[in-house]
Amino acid sequence: MKAGLIMRHDVMSILHAFCMIAENHSFTRAAAQLHISTSALSQNMRQLEDELGVKLLNRTTRRVGLTEAG
């Protein structure tokens, strides 16, 4: 990750959120379990993907799946 773009204390929470999405195959269910908005969760995942320079999630209207990199 590029230094400073994701604060060090946020890294674990963002990675935990990624795992919740992967387990639930859903931003909505993961956000509910994490007690955050779906929008905030989506922004965090886009930020993570941008910083890593790779797409981690395949998003569809019904389901979320992992890419090969994810």
UniProtKB/TrEMBL annotation:
The keyword Transmembrane does not apply. The lineage of its organism: Bacteria, Pseudomonadati, Pseudomonadota, Gammaproteobacteria, Enterobacterales. Keywords: DNA-binding, Transcription, Transcription regulation. GO terms for molecular function: DNA-binding transcription factor activity; transcription cis-regulatory region binding. The keyword Transport does not apply. Belongs to the LysR transcriptional regulatory family. It comes from Salmonella enterica subsp. enterica serovar Kentucky. Transmembrane segments: none annotated. Pfam families: HTH_1. This is LysR family transcriptional regulator. Residues 12-67 form the HTH lysR-type domain. PROSITE patterns: HTH_LYSR. InterPro entries: LysR_HTH_N, WH-like_DNA-bd_sf, WH_DNA-bd_sf.
